[in-house]
Amino acid sequence: MRKLVFVAALVASSALSAPAFAQDEAPSAPSGFRVGVVGGLDILRPGSSEDTDIDGDDQSTEGFLYGVEAGYDIPLGGAVLGIEAELTDSTGKTRVNRADPNTFGYGSVAAGRDIYVGGRLGFEVSPGTLVYAKGGYTNARLNVLASDGATELEDRNFQLDGWRAGAGVEKSIGRNTYAKVEYRYSKYTDADFQFANGTTTDTFSVDTDRHQIVAGVGFRF
């Protein structure tokens, strides 16, 4: 009888302690497929070779960035190696002051879609918190704006190629969810222009910078 009571007490004690142990267990490193949404500040402006000291010369497009992302992460001990892709758009647009021909350089434009493909390397600084650096290829469009004074039309004419680098912090906020904040810098060095009849120019050199501060939330599978 005493043995039965002892065994029953041991089973009950194990059942009560197991959930507590599971709750106290540290979150595992990010791994597997993930998808999410991002949004934040988007600033597109002339690069260093286009800057001048004239007050108000270097115009920029400033707007709200929004889009979706997807990626795959592989844990490597305390590190995480991942690949990722992103598709975004932006509300940024500019109007060039025609009295100053050295401004932005593309005429009256609005930021269009932006495609990014790259990788990232992160390190866990605490359970569930990842600090990472990222880099890769980016392809953006600038929509040329035309107006008759009443209606504004957008033609997708400029296509820019370049690279992106950035860094951020990602935090687990649930078993399969995460939130992140990151800064990204993009440098566009090549472009082409498509005319109204569909013909496209040869690639030419440009110097255009992009600064973005974004926040995002996502889900892991």
Automatic annotation (TrEMBL):
Stored Pfam families: OMP_b-brl
GO annotations of cellular component type: membrane
InterPro entries in alphabetical order: Beta-barrel_OMP, OMP-like, OMP/PagP_B-barrel
Lineage, opening ranks: Bacteria, Pseudomonadati, Pseudomonadota, Alphaproteobacteria, Sphingomonadales
Main localization (coarse): membrane
Keywords associated with the record: Membrane, Signal
Subcellular location: Membrane
Protein name: Porin family protein
Xref: PANTHER family: BLL7405 PROTEIN
